[in-house]
Amino acid sequence: MKREDAFYYKNLLMLGFSDGYDEWLNSYLELENPLSDIVLELSCCGSDVNKTISILHNYCDEQSFDEAVVCDKLRLFFKKAYYSNRMNKEEISFNMYRLALNIGDPVDFDIRLWGSMYYLDDYHSLAKLGVISWESFDFAFFSYLDNGTPLDPNLIWNKNA
Q1: Residue 153: φ, ψ to 5°
Q2: What 3-state DSSP class applies to 108?
Q3: Contact assessment for residue 95 and residue 87, using Cβ atoms and an 8 Å cutoff
Q4: Is 75 exposed, middle or buried (0-12, 13-18, 19+ CB in 10 A)?
């Protein structure tokens, strides 16, 4: 089991999204012979989401993995949610912020990876208050959501001017 996938599903479950988790776990249950300890532990969780999150968390803490892969995979999850009309811009921005908080405090996590998710909600709030234009917010939102282009505060404020 890839730790990147475990971290991805751990974070989705922490946000209350179970999209694809059962299928992902079932694929390991079908393919592994013998079953790894992590797959066995997860298969015993049933519908106990907190236990599942705890097991995935411990598994991810055991060894380093490529957080950039996970960050991009999560961005693509939100992109799909937006374009399928499952979530609107406000919901995407808020859930990205919640996700970043689950990763840690901005002084603790890699700001280059998680900073856009963390700050996008702030820019949404600024647009709602009229401090920046919706055009500036949309530019930042879609640049990140569609292409993974990190938020550039200077560009947002200059575009707003």
Answers
A1: -55, -40
A2: coil
A3: yes
A4: buried
Average pLDDT over residues 12-22: 95
133 torsion bin: left (phi>0), alpha (psi -120 to 50), beta (else): beta
Distance CA 98, CA 33 (A): 37
Q: What is the mean pLDDT of residues 33-37?
A: 92
From residue 155, how far is each of 49, 60, 81, 116, 152 by CA, in Å?
40, 35, 26, 13, 5
- Considering all CA atoms of the chain, what is the largest pairwise distance in Å, rounded to the nearest integer? 61
| Residue 13, pLDDT above cutoff 90 | yes
The two three-digit tokens of residue 111, written as one number: 């700001």
pTM: 0.92
Q: Specify the pLDDT at position 145.
A: 98
Total count of residues recorded for the chain: 161
